[in-house]
UniProtKB/TrEMBL annotation:
GO MF annotations in UniProt: ribose-5-phosphate isomerase activity
Signal peptide from the UniProt entry: none
Similarity remark: Belongs to the LacAB/RpiB family.
Keyword annotations: Isomerase
Protein name: Ribose 5-phosphate isomerase B
Amino acid sequence: MKIAVACDHAGLQLKNVLIEEMQKAGHEVKDFGTYTEESCDYPDYVIPTAKAVANGEFDRGVVVCGTGLGVSMTANKVHGIRCAVCHDTFSAKATRQHNDANMLAMGQRVVGTGVALEVLKAFLETDYEGGRHQRRIDKMMALEKQQ
Ligand code: RB5
């Protein structure tokens, strides 16, 4: 899969671990930054990442900040993005099966590396179930056209 990733200063270490894992698993990863622990503003990195996922350049996106919250809120402002904050494997699996989430957000200050790697694996390896869920996603995404 082609995966776009980004973080802020508070998510750098976890992002780097996730990138290494995705590359090991054979995924093509593009890192949109940030690349240092110098304080920065997550929208500067998340917006280009989310746009690249929304326009089909990448299959999925993975974003990390201190909590996972700011990066997910930002990504979800981009039309076409369904970004889920997940710190457990049940949620990561469910958001793929039911919500067809195309971006995952995690918080480096919230979750340990071991759990984060399992969450990532569940997110990348779980398929969308379609069926009744499509109707709900269609209603959700229709908002983007109305507003
Ligand atoms: C940075 O201090 C922190 O606010 C940021 O990483 C993120 O957690 C915001 O939602």
